[in-house]
Hints:
The protein is α/β, with parallel strands linked by helices. It contains 14 helices and ten strands.
Amino acid sequence: xxxxxxxxxxxxxxxxxxxxxxxxxxxxxxxxxxxxxxxxxxxxxxxxxxxxxxxxxxxxxxxxxxxxxxxxxxxxxxxxxxxxxxxxxxxxxxxxxxxxxxxxxxxxxxxxxxxxxxxxxxxxxxxxxxxxxxxxxxxxxxxxxxxxxxxxxxxxxxxxxxxxxxxxxxxxxxxxxxxxxxxxxxxxxxxxxxxxxxxxxxxxxxxxxxxxxxxxxxxxxxxxxxxxxxxxxxxxxxxxxxxxxxxxxxxxxxxxxxxxxxxxxxxxxxxxxxxxxxxxxxxxxxxxxxxxxxxxxxxxxxxxxxxxxxxxxxxxxxxxxxxxxxxxxxxxx
Length: 333
């Protein structure tokens, strides 16, 4: 169904994909079911290409019965707003941030425990297994349906003041954090002052000195040119994040038998996006290394692991002890 995903250069910068239309609509007769799907990434991000691929595959697989309008760049609101619109039924689907989605299912934030996974592949294997099914069940209890987990990358720290080589180097920095309680807990545990700022506003906040630094995967760092205002990039790999693709229960019921087509399209797109994301991460990191004046600092994770150990204990004490133990056991297996 989606063989052309690779032929068209999914996330590798092919002209055909970069020129893909903002809205994919069926040809011929009007679709019986028209859906809206929002996300916060740019048109050049692997997650956007994956959503376009889903829309295209669904249109083809349903012979035009189902169309999906894809809105990138927070066209349907920022992550928090999209989650509210999803819950209210104003939006059919969203590929959302881990932090914003955890406002509905707090267990999702626990995927971001510091230094939990050795790499993105290990994390995704657990998200696809029993641990992920546990979280999926919690989404269903909230009348949402998770179609799969997309890779949002392993995250690193950047700042404008000094190289971060040890945990003590984080203390006293003003760090931007997304709307994610786990990230806030990590940085406050390291002694930073945290400020929640929307992703699209981070570059301006760094330029104006509202914050000293931020944390993101290399793709996001390069997407908005954070390295141009934060010349110290420390490869801390302090956490991993997913992006769950969520659908309302009402939309699931509207689709009927066509739900199988959507599920198959989502699965294939997630598989391709995960591979593409790793290639994009490597390319973005190379761009950062080649940027004049930028220092890319290799970091010994051992002291950071010790310094952030209290975060897991904090979440256990918040009432999530059983799930923390479950995911820690799976990660060690």
